[in-house]
Amino acid sequence: MNRTKGDEEEYWNSSKFKAFTFDDEDDELSQVVNSLRDFVDDDDADDDLERVSWSISWSIKETSSNSGSNHEREQLKNRNSFSSYAQLPKPASTYSLSSFFRGRTRPGSFQSLSDALSDTSAKSYAPELGRPKGEYRDYSNDWSPSDTVRRLRKGKVCSLERFRSLQDKLQLLEEAVSMHDGNVITAVLIFLKRTLSKEILFRELEVRQVALRHLIHFLKEIGDQKLLLDLFRFLDRTEELALTHYREHLNIQDPEKRKEFLKTCIGLPFSAEDSAHIQDHYTLLERQIIIEANDRHLESAGQTEIFRKHPRKASILNMPLVTTLFYSCFYHYTEAEVQAERERKIPEKQYVLTALAARAKLRAWHDVDALFTTKNWLGYTKKRAPIGFHRVVEILHKNSAPVQILQEYVNLVEDVDTKLNLATKFKCHDVVIDTCRDLKDRQQLLVYRSKVDKGSAEEEKIDAILNSSQIRWKN
């Protein structure tokens, strides 16, 4: 496009934008910042510039096309491209307008606006130049205890180091407790734990039960057993002191050292019930150590059949009582270990259930039968199951017991409906047929006849019963 010399001078010396100074009102710079959008051709440029309100005093002084010096006009004439837009007049400060948008300074030289807008290596943002005056109180450390607690409750970062005297620290704790916020109370307690001696901290918390409970819970969560023991010792809480000391055995991995530690716990001031548990724990671990050493030797020797057929999958050390009982019933059923475990006040139902699971897994049906066989004072034997024969049947079936074994125990179920359901479920045909015959239920027998195989012995048995003239059917 051809221009005359006059038109070209008018083009370069006129502008719809104002240069900025530091004398005018705040909102004028906002207009300039928002007008920078017109310099960008990309549609995505709106994402790079943010509309902001400036809270410090900037001013813009319009430059007249007639008041510029000849030297300035010559500089304007040398700018031949809109894409490489001229740098703004250099103010006395070392900040450029583009550097404000980049959040950095450029001493000595300035980045052009076009470079600033095309530079994607850094995130563009508008600086927060004017914060409310109150926010700067964070840095002057002039928050009161109540203000500090309120800010902590809102999740704001506050330094507690300004509270140096004991009175200020206790006032801060009182404010936190009155706020009824556990997180704030714990935060203040962590500060007090770090800045006060144990004696002073324990003494002050003794009369502040809410804060004391929070500290005890916090120490348990972080596992600070030493400080917790000192606290209980100071408060003269002997039983809690003993329980906390006993809990330390969980951190001892060596079985012998754990056994010796448990031995030291026996004499601690537990309640009567807890003392019995501690004694049982010590005795159990002592027995487990003996069994483990013996079985490890037998297994490595390879001369014991049960260890060859069923190798051990894990050590028995530190296992619960029921697991130890199952292990003994599995590997040492006929030995003294089982009797020793049975003498540990194990309920009869628990013992029968565990022993049945162990012996059924080995398919030792003779041992299963002996487990439920009892004799009366006259020498007569009968079957008795403390856990109920319906549970016995379920466990036997789970361990793939033969149908003959299942039928024997299904017949011992007292409830008729339960017996029929179990017999039908596990295909104990003789039990179903005999039960229907005893109930004189012809209709149910006919229904079951359709479920058995054609020409089988069960079908013949059903037909013989149906054709019998000695049975008076109910239907």
TrEMBL record:
Residues 62-83 are annotated as: Disordered. Residues 165-452 form the Vps16 C-terminal domain. It comes from the Eukaryota. Transmembrane segments: none annotated. GO terms for biological process: intracellular protein transport; vacuolar transport. GO terms for cellular component: early endosome; late endosome. Keywords: Cytoplasmic vesicle, Endosome. Its main location: cytoplasm. It is found in: Cytoplasmic vesicle; Early endosome; Late endosome. This is Spermatogenesis-defective protein 39 homolog. It comes from Phocoena sinus. The gene is VIPAS39.
